[in-house]
Amino acid sequence: MECIFCRIVAGTLPATPVLENEHVMAFRDVNPQAPVHILVVPRRHVVSVAALVPGDAALSAALLLAAAEVARREGLEDAGYRVVTNIGDDGGQSVDHLHLHVLGGRSLGWPPG
Ligand code: AMP
Prior knowledge:
HIT family, subunit A
């Protein structure tokens, strides 16, 4: 299994899990860009948002709901936070397994660099 996030989901690559359910897993980013930086990934391998199909509606909702739940658990709700997903080369995607970044714990600024 080549995909590192598939390996994390399978438990063969260590990670620090934050939330798990039928559809998704959330774990801490190894190279955090903010005091809280968590990745929410589908258990099933999906390359990116661009690869989602109408049959993935439940999975897509589960990803967003998990991002919001992670933020609540991390105490980010009052101050706010960012949910972002990178797609392809220009989007800055480095791992080809769909993931939402949940970032918070400091003022993040806009637009991003
Ligand atoms: P992206 O550039 O949007 O594809 O984001 C990939 C993210 O995965 C980066 O923020 C990396 O720091 C993170 N990452 C890479 N390998 C691991 C890993 N083994 N465990 C946790 N996060 C990882």
